From TrEMBL:
Gene name as annotated: trmA
Record family assignment: Belongs to the class I-like SAM-binding methyltransferase superfamily. RNA M5U methyltransferase family. TrmA subfamily.
Enzyme Commission number(s): 2.1.1.35
Active site: 320, 320 (nucleophile), 354 (proton acceptor)
Name this polypeptide is given: tRNA/tmRNA (uracil-C(5))-methyltransferase
Stored InterPro entries: MeTrfase_TrmA_AS, MeTrfase_TrmA_CS, SAM-dependent_MTases_sf, TrmA_MeTrfase, U5_MeTrfase_fam
GO molecular function: rRNA binding; tRNA (uracil(54)-C5)-methyltransferase activity, S-adenosyl methionine-dependent; tRNA binding
Top-level taxon in the UniProt lineage: Bacteria
Length: 362
């Protein structure tokens, strides 16, 4: 067992090198310098998951290097985590080690926090959670001041709630979000705000209607809705769709519809390949789409979806994987040129790079 401390290193130099690599990778498609959005150098991660290493009757936070799952690195500090995560970590560990019921067969702890100061702690076990655990967990909630959720095989015990609430100020307006445990949320809050602001700026003069694929809980959808006459968004995750519907109501957005469809299904629907009952209340012919926003998973856009979005005058493409975005650009560059190009440093001190492209029809 080794002690591991996160090394924040020379952030400015690391980010400059990342931008240079990105510019070179995209040089076949644009001469633009990427707009670079730096992360805070510390306390930028709003969520974290730790394995629990048990030794000598004590629990420790731990992580493993890929391929070395029998060699844990004990986490004694986590400077990349939000200040709230760093505040809660030692308090949770002390409480767990003071309670045999909470500690026994605990193998993972997850923290979900927000820029607005909310938090949720999930404890995951290799045992059935009983009334004794519920009593101890309720006492833990009182001690920490934030809700605790328990998980084990085929069990999910929600003592208070299974979500956090976020408030993001973008420009002069604040947007409110429900973020559900286990569903996707942006891990770097300040970069999330930068991405939304960049997307709003890119869409400022678009007009017409917006189609968004992979909309999640409405993270981009809700702030962008004010730039368009109507918005239609799709998402395959039922949990995220339900959260998005609540977020629409919370923010008072009236020109936005969200439908639970995959990108492949929507492509079939808009091409009239097959009808979908989930679209029975949506008149696709009533939309005058000027812009499509895509924020796909790491695999990028499948060939059919890529061909479909190429028919739009403007494509806003947010990517967590430049390699697959570049693959898609081989096709999209035949019809569109890059008008804006951005680097969002979601994960500092790693090779990971997130990008934003505004593509405009030639």
């Amino acid at each position: 067992m080794a002690i591991h401390r996160v090394n924040t290193g020379d952030y400015e130099n690391q980010l400059r090198q990342k931008a240079e690599r990105l510019r070179e990778a995209y040089s076949g498609y644009t001469d633009l310098e990427p707009e670079v959005f730096p992360s805070p150098p510390i306390h930028y991660r709003l969520r974290a998951e730790f394995k629990i290493w048990q030794e000598g009757g004590r629990a420790h936070y731990a992580m493993y290097r890929q391929g070395e799952y029998k060699k844990p690195f004990v986490i004694e500090e986590f400077t990349v985590g939000s200040e709230l995560i760093n505040n809660l970590m030692p308090r949770l560990l002390t409480a767990v080690n003071d309670s045999e019921v909470l500690r026994k067969r605990l193998f993972s702890a997850e923290f979900l926090t927000t820029l607005s100061g909310d938090a949720l702690i999930t404890l995951i076990y290799h045992k059935k959670l009983d009334d004794a655990w519920v009593a101890e967990a309720r006492a833990l909630q009182e001690k920490l001041g934030y809700p605790v959720l328990g998980r084990s095989r085929r069990q999910k015990l929600v003592l208070e709630r299974d979500y956090v609430t976020e408030a993001l100020k973008i420009g002069n307006k604040t947007y409110h979000y429900k973020q559900v445990e286990g569903s996707f949320t942006q891990p770097n809050g300040e970069i999330c705000r930068a991405m939304i602001q960049w997307a709003k700026d890119a869409c400022g003069d678009s007009g017409g209607d917006l189609l968004e694929l992979y909309c999640g809980n409405g993270n981009f959808t809700i702030p962008l809705a004010e730039h368009f006459n109507k918005v239609l968004a799709t998402e395959i995750s039922k949990v995220s769709v339900n959260a998005a519907q609540e977020n629409i109501r919370m923010n008072g957005v009236s020109n936005l519809n969200i439908v639970r469809l995959s990108s492949e299904e929507f492509t079939q629907a808009i091409d009239r390949v097959r009808p979908f009952r989930r679209l029975r209340d949506i008149d696709l012919d009533s939309y005058d789409f000027s812009t499509v926003l895509v924020d796909p998973p790491r695999a990028g856009l499948d060939a059919e979806t890529c061909a479909m979005v190429a028919r739009f005058p403007r494509i806003l493409y947010i990517s967590c994987n430049p390699h697959t975005q570049l693959d898609n650009l081989k096709a999209l560059s035949k019809t569109h040129r890059i008008e804006r190009f951005a680097l969002f440093d979601q994960f500092p001190y790693t090779e990971h790079t997130e990008t934003g492209l505004l593509l405009v029809r030639k």
